[in-house]
Amino acid sequence: MISYLMLFASVTMTVVASTLLKIGSRTVNFDGGLFSIAMGYMTSPVIVLGFASYALAAILWVYCLSVFDLSHVTFVSSFQYVLLMAVSIFVFHEQISLMKWAGCIFIIIGVFLWLKG
């Protein structure tokens, strides 16, 4: 059971990291040179926290790879697309097309079938 919690935590931390980086990217000035942009990344607490979330997700991911089959872990990780769609709607107020909804439904069905198989 703890292994599945770690897998869910890894997927969730990846979504959290993407969300933080998206929020943080709004604070970085992209008009300067490469050094200026890099400094903007390193001085933005939200971006630093996003990178730290990715690092934690990677540590959890390695643990999951040691416990589950690669095909299992990789397939379950596709559920992050569903979570990212929810973040897109509720946090960023993005519009989701009918085709994206259909794809999301197929992903959910696929993950469910994969776990049952």
TrEMBL record:
<feature type="transmembrane region" description="Helical">
    <location>
        <begin position="41"/>
        <end position="63"/>
    </location>
</feature>
<protein>
    <submittedName>
        <fullName>EamA-like transporter family</fullName>
    </submittedName>
</protein>
<feature type="transmembrane region" description="Helical">
    <location>
        <begin position="98"/>
        <end position="115"/>
    </location>
</feature>
<feature type="transmembrane region" description="Helical">
    <location>
        <begin position="70"/>
        <end position="92"/>
    </location>
</feature>
<keyword id="KW-1133">Transmembrane helix</keyword>
<dbReference type="InterPro" id="IPR037185">
    <property type="entry name" value="EmrE-like"/>
</dbReference>
<dbReference type="GO" id="GO:0022857">
    <property type="term" value="F:transmembrane transporter activity"/>
</dbReference>
<dbReference type="GO" id="GO:0005886">
    <property type="term" value="C:plasma membrane"/>
</dbReference>
<keyword id="KW-0812">Transmembrane</keyword>
<keyword id="KW-0472">Membrane</keyword>
<dbReference type="InterPro" id="IPR000390">
    <property type="entry name" value="Small_drug/metabolite_transptr"/>
</dbReference>
<keyword id="KW-1003">Cell membrane</keyword>
